[in-house]
Structures are given as structure tokens and as C-alpha cells.
Design brief:
Elements: H1 2-11, E1 41-47, H2 56-66, E2 67-78, H3 84-104, H4 108-112, H5 114-120, H6 124-133, E3 138-144, E4 149-155
Parallel strand pairs: 1-2
Antiparallel strand pairs: 2-4, 3-4
């Protein structure tokens, strides 16, 4: 996967502007034990990862540790909504569209876990509580995509 990401990154660079591209090294690691010094990064992102770690509070503490003071992390994932209408819509979308489509490609197992993992994932307010407990000074969860997705933005104290 990381080799694919590296190739895609290089293929999207515009000719003649290479000097303006941020150099990036792709690494595989453990989100709960990152191989970086404390206070290293100006920002961080995570996409569809927090829901899949073994210990969410530990992963949040680790993100907080590697960020520089005043830096933020944005975490995108499926949303475990409090809205019963959106919850039913999400359930139907996954059960009747996503999983059957995945089945056609032999990927049923990779997608069947989604609904149970979303329901076990903290709601937006629960994520805010967890981020504060991890040491973040400012936290806000935003529902996006009609409430089907959510973005947790957490900022480390200066």
C-alpha cells in the first residue's frame, strides 16, 4: 500500500514545480507507538484509522505527544451519529449497497465489519471527551456528509 501511495504522490506532481512539493517519506507504523520524538509535527491527519486501533485513548495520547505546541490533528472517520434517521440511513446504505457490491468483488469480509465497528466507535461528543482526556486543549467534532462521516479536530495547548 505504501509503495502505491508513493507512486501516486509522484505521479500527481506538476512538471517544473517539484521544488515546491513537500518531501514526504511513507512509513508503516503503530499509531499507538509512533517512532517520532515529542513535539515534532506542525499538524497531523488520520483517515478511517482511529476507529480501527486497539486503544483509542492511547492513539489520541500518542497523536498529542508528537504534535508541536499549538498544532492540530484532523481525524476523519465514519460517524456514529446520535440522529436515529441518519443511523438508519447509514445502516441501510452499508447493508444493502456497500456490502453487496463488495461481495461481487470477493471483498465481503473487508466491508461486513464496518457497521459493527461504527456502532462500537464513540459518538462525536464521546470523541471530544476522549481527546480532552488525551491532553488536547481545544477539541471539536464536525458531522459531514449528511452526518454519515465525522471529523474530529483537536489542538494541542501552546
Amino acid at each position: 500500500m505504501l509503495a502505491d501511495a508513493s507512486v501516486r504522490q509522484r505521479s500527481t506532481q506538476l512538471p517544473g514545480v517539484g521544488r515546491y512539493n513537500t518531501p514526504m517519506k511513507w512509513l508503516q507504523g503503530d499509531a499507538m507507538d509512533m517512532p517520532f520524538e515529542a513535539n515534532t509535527f506542525d499538524s497531523a491527519t488520520m483517515g478511517y484509522g482511529l476507529r480501527n486501533v486497539a486503544d483509542i485513548p492511547k492513539a489520541l495520547r500518542e497523536l498529542q505527544r508528537v504534535l508541536k505546541p499549538g498544532a492540530s490533528v484532523a481525524i476523519l472517520d465514519f460517524n456514529n451519529t446520535d440522529n436515529p434517521v441518519i443511523d438508519k440511513l447509514q445502516s441501510a446504505f452499508l447493508e444493502y449497497l456497500v456490502v453487496p457490491a463488495a461481495r461481487q468483488y470477493g471483498l465481503q469480509e473487508e466491508y461486513e465489519y464496518l457497521r459493527p465497528s461504527i456502532k462500537a466507535f464513540p459518538t462525536g461528543s464521546g470523541q471530544e471527551v476522549a481527546a480532552r482526556a488525551a491532553g488536547f486543549a481545544k477539541v471539536k467534532h464536525y458531522e459531514v456528509g449528511f452526518g454519515l462521516m465525522g471529523i474530529l479536530v483537536a489542538t494541542k495547548a501552546k
